[in-house]
Write a structure and sequence with these properties.
With 134 residues, the protein is of the alpha+beta class. The protein has helices at residues 6-16, 27-41, 45-52, 56-68, 91-102; strands at residues 83-84, 88-89, 105-110, 115-120. The chain has one domain. It contains 5 helices and 4 strands.
């Protein structure tokens, strides 16, 4: 089995989206790198920051948004929805989660339907004091 290091994750990210070549400074690239790294490392801020070589504050903000969206917990990441079957990677769902992690999109779980809804942050229903949206 190949060792998972930063170069390995960067190569997989470019396989997912070749247009990211040369865009390592873009927020979307960095956010995608954190999410893809968390697939192997889990949601620990310090560990992800050290591994990705990104600022701890950036990783912490990404982590907090993913926890708020109920895609991560304090101890685990939920990435199963990126895959169909054994090996098919759903690029669109991955990028929807990147948008959530960037704070541009809100993910809401609709329990009655058993589905997720993704909405632009500006159009998401506002929470009332003490009310959960999800």
């Amino acid at each position: 089995m190949k060792s998972i290091n930063l170069q390995f994750v960067k190569e997989r990210l470019l396989e997912i989206d070749p247009s990211l070549e040369g865009r390592e400074g873009d927020e979307s690239y960095k956010t995608a790198l954190v999410l893809l790294s968390a697939l192997a490392l889990g949601p620990d801020t310090a560990r992800l920051a050290k591994f990705t070589q990104l600022p701890r504050e950036f990783v912490a903000t990404t982590r907090q948004r993913m926890i708020q969206a109920e895609l991560w917990t304090e101890a685990d990441t939920c990435c199963d929805h990126w895959f169909v079957g054994d090996a098919v990677f759903c690029v669109g769902i991955f990028w929807a989660d990147v948008l959530v992690a960037e704070g541009l999109v809100i993910r809401q779980r609709v329990q009655e339907e058993g589905q997720d809804r993704y909405r632009e942050s500006a159009f998401a229903p506002q929470r009332k004091q003490g009310q959960e949206v999800n």
